[in-house]
Design goal:
Layout: H1 3-16, H2 29-32, E1 33-36, E2 41-44, H3 47-50, H4 53-57, E3 66-68, E4 71-72, H5 112-135, H6 142-155
Antiparallel strand pairs: 1-2, 3-4
Length: about 190
């Protein structure tokens, strides 16, 4: 089943939902979606009608500076300097540049050595992820997690891939609470 057949079904299902579109609703597909043929773009216009996703993504809150009645608004802590990577560890091409690497134009075919390297890096990634999960406890700072993960990766002879990718200053992303993605580890203790 191609993705082209799923999209019309999803739209059709949404349009038939009486909670989203009551029978006397003035909404139509034309008003729900705006299509610009010259640009080839389609975007949803009334997304806020359907869910609080827009508010969540753009960090909007109701109330007195809190996400909900139990938790205070997220405040950044102090970010420590970039951690050292020993010279014997090979750097990816993006290190030293704030430019992101290009996307491959086609499939990459690996030989036996390449496949063995992919298996080893996948195993290390799984081990690091499992280890990082054990560090997540109240009172621990995300900077302490970053330090431990960084050390584990370089002790394995590898380069921590988030470090310097597009200018990212740390070896792990730590998105806390309403921080959606690419949270930078800092001095805030976890609660």
């Amino acid at each position: 089943m191609g993705s082209g057949s799923i999209q019309p079904r999803l739209v059709s299902t949404l349009m038939r939902d009486p909670q989203l579109f009551p029978a006397n609703s003035c909404y139509s597909l034309h008003r729900l979606f705006n299509f610009s043929p010259g640009r080839g773009l389609m975007y949803m216009q009334f997304s806020r009608t359907f869910s609080g996703l827009t508010n969540l993504l753009f960090n909007r809150r109701s109330g007195e500076g809190s996400v909900d009645s139990k938790r205070a608004r997220l405040k950044p802590g102090k970010v420590s300097p970039i951690r050292h990577v020993p010279d014997h560890i090979q750097r990816p091409p993006y290190v030293g540049s704030k430019q992101l690497p290009g996307i491959a134009s086609g499939p990459e075919i690996h030989d036996e050595k390449g496949m063995a390297c992919m298996r080893a890096s996948g195993k290390l990634a799984a081990d690091v992820l499992q280890y990082a999960g054990t560090l997540v406890k109240p009172g621990t700072t995300t900077d302490e997690i970053d330090k431990a993960v960084h050390e584990m990766i370089i002790e394995s002879g590898a380069y921590p891939s988030p470090l310097c990718y597009g200018g990212f200053p740390k070896s792990v992303c730590t998105s806390v609470n309403e921080c959606i993605c690419h949270g930078i580890p800092d001095s805030r203790p976890l609660e």
